[in-house]
Amino acid sequence: MKGLLCTIILALLMPAEGLLAQDSEHSLFGTWQFVQEKSTDLATWRYRIPELVIGDSNGTVTIDHRWVERKQIALVDRYEFQPGGAPVSTPVTTEIWTDNWFMGVLAKKASERTVSGRWIIRGEAMMTVSEQTVSISQGETTITTTREYRVSGDGKTLTLRETRSSRPSSVILTFERGQPGAAR
Amino acid sequence: MKPLLLLFACLLIFTLPLQGQNAGTMYVMQLADNWEIEGQLPTQALLISLQGVANVGAPRLYFLYPEKWDFTFSKPLLEYYRTTREMEFAELSNADEALARLGGHARGYVVWDTAVRTSLIVAFTAAGLHRSIVVSEELIPLAEKHGLKMKEDFRGKFTGQTDIDIYEWAYQAYWEQCSKEYLVYMGGEWGKIMKPGIADFGIHHKAFFTDASTNPADTLEYEFAKRIFSEMKPMTFVMGWHSYKKDREAQHVTLTSNYALRVEGLHTLPNMSFNHQIPLSPGYEFKNNHNLEPGKVYVPEEKVYISCIQTDCLGLGAWTKPGRGEIPYAWEVTMNWSWLAPAMLQFFYDMATPNDYFIGSLSGPGYMYPKAIPPEYLPGVVDTAYALMKKLDLNVFEIMDHATYWKTDGIDDDVPKEIVDVYFERMPDVLGIANGYRPGHTFAVYDGKPFISYDYYLGEKRDEKEAVADLKELANLNAKRPYYLLMHVRQWSDIKRVKRILDQLGPEFELVPLDIFMKMAGHTPTFHTRYGEPIR
């Protein structure tokens, strides 16, 4: 009886925690608009503008990297995982390698990308690690990408530090809280 | 009676040069840097149309284009003509003076309607057929002051009509009389601006002018474009450029290639009615700056070999900018200039430093997409391109194919094996073939000759530190050595900037001339063989 009660209480608390986090002014959750002038110069696929939408549902975090072209969402690259949980594999459905359009790199279609993540500060800072197979001129290779999402003290700015195993320097992107599709 | 005759003779002597009948006199004039309909465009259009008719039979009028013009060589080319051809030019300062000197070559004027931009495009067609200049209403008195009579009047004629209505009218009125060897796309900028640099050439050759959309979604204009393309002779020319408003370059070149037509850009290509008539120096032969030593075997070391190609046509951007000659650099040659503007191409060859290496382009004898060319025309296309390469002493060719690129969200610029086979079969002496614009993904080796795609696109705005990181990242991803990193440099990047980036790459990287790069890549390939999907 006691165990059942605990389960019910936990079940009630878990979404509540998620909701609380989403409602907080300092929360990572929400929609984030790219601020180009405070970010590393990007070579985005067809010059699209990134937008982030971070949410959770029953303890599963979803991070949508959206790519906006003329105020329309052209592509959504979704990372979905349970913080602290085992890596999740998702099939790669497009050859578009969103990270850089100027380099001869394509995502390997029909391969699997694994993603895991954990909270650094619950609700405010998170780290994800993804592994992906890419096609290059010499065949195929794997890129491991670590992403750290962190909200500023005033809750208005999100900084994304992206570190690829292959790249000598990190890419730092700055976002401000905003509405979906409001990318400039 | 005698004094009367004397007076008449004097009048004749003074009048003849003013009527431009002195074929030996050449004129030069600086054009203003304003191309707005409400600004200087009417005067610029008048002048460029005058150039088209005045240069019939002999080169008489040359323009200096503004510094910000797409093609940056009008001034140095003039100096080249002065020094190497001993040409002398009298300077003209305004349209009135230009008409006084050269108006006699025009048979009349065509009035366009400044309220209907497309009327100017049609007016260029009419001007070619009537050997006339184009004028806006405000410039009619000027034309008449110089004795010209109205040939056509488009004021109010097209009011409220769509472009397709206007072009259908123009087709009915003019198409039959127009050249079937040159068609001019008067595209590029749109709205209040037009930059009709190529109009003189079109008028000179009685070309039909249009900017009809080649976007299949614009069904009426698309069908119109298909109709006029289908009525051109195959392997002839679509000069100018597509409209930046109506369609995409990839759509335009796909459709022209469907009819085996050769695109020769841009709409801003200047002075072609003049340059077309200046021959090569007597006995001149085009000589490239080859780097390969006969008989030497080029065995690569365990390095990252990088080679740079500037595409997008000679004379756009970097050629006249600082740094040329400081590092090995390959330049796309606009091969048709060898006969469209021979001395102009000689000017580039003569200016070239030992580090400037020329390559043939682009997919054919002109800008074409091989995947879109009807298969029965492809061998002829390749043969014609190869003949031009031989004439121009070129032994590396370049392909770009965006026939499906724009339909695949920027992924597919690859070339299927059956097409690569045709190029290598019919270009037996090439050292190799480069492919792509942004990075491509087709790689192969044919009998020691590589087909190698760009692995990097250096955009003109790319932050230099990030470009360095991009190149280092590519070298990390492609871990085998040697790694062949072919880089496309967008034409607006000057070579000093490219050098700054390359200087930061470290000792593992080595910049090599393209011919040596091709030799090594063919000798010890490390890329993975990959082709585009076969054409169904």
Protein traits:
heterodimer; A: 184 residues; mainly beta; Lipocalin; 11-stranded antiparallel β-sheet; 1 helix; 11 strands; 49% strand; globular; B: 536 residues; alpha/beta; 6-stranded parallel β-sheet; 4-stranded parallel β-sheet
Protein described:
- The complex is a heterodimer of chains A (184) and B (536).
- In chain A, 30% of the residues are buried.
- Chain A has a single domain, classed as Calycin beta-barrel core domain (Lipocalin, Beta Barrel), CATH 2.40.128.
- Chain A has 184 residues and is mainly β.
- In chain B, strands 11, 12, 13, 20, 21 and 22 form a 6-stranded parallel beta sheet that branches. Chain B has a 4-stranded parallel beta sheet with strand order 8-7-9-10.
- In chain B, strand 14 and strand 15 form a beta hairpin.
- In chain B, helix 2 runs parallel beside helix 5.
- Chain B starts with a helix and ends in a 13-residue tail after the last helix.
- About 4% of the residues of chain B have low confidence.
- At the A-B interface, strand 8 and strand 9 of A face strand 20 and helix 16 of B.
Topology at a glance:
The complex is a heterodimer of chains A (184) and B (536).
Chain A: H1 2-23, E1 30-34, E2 49-57, E3 60-69, E4 72-81, E5 88-91, E6 106-107, E7 112-121, E8 125-136, E9 139-151, E10 157-164, E11 171-177
Antiparallel strand pairs in A: 1-2, 1-11, 2-3, 3-4, 5-7, 6-8, 7-8, 8-9, 9-10, 10-11
Chain B: H1 2-18, E1 26-30, H2 41-54, E2 61-64, H3 74-84, E3 89-92, H4 95-102, E4 109-111, H5 118-130, E5 133-135, H6 140-145, E6 150-153, H7 163-174, E7 182-188, H8 199-204, E8 208-210, H9 219-231, E9 237-243, H10 249-258, E10 262-264, H11 272-275, E11 304-310, E12 329-334, H12 337-340, H13 342-351, E13 356-361, E14 363-364, E15 366-367, H14 378-391, E16 396-399, H15 417-426, E17 432-435, E18 443-446, E19 449-453, E20 456-458, H16 464-477, E21 483-489, H17 495-503, E22 509-511, H18 514-523
Parallel strand pairs in B: 1-2, 1-3, 4-5, 4-6, 7-8, 7-9, 9-10, 11-12, 11-21, 11-22, 12-13, 16-17, 17-19, 20-21
Antiparallel strand pairs in B: 14-15, 18-19
Helix pairs in contact in B: 2-4, 2-5, 5-7, 14-15, 16-17
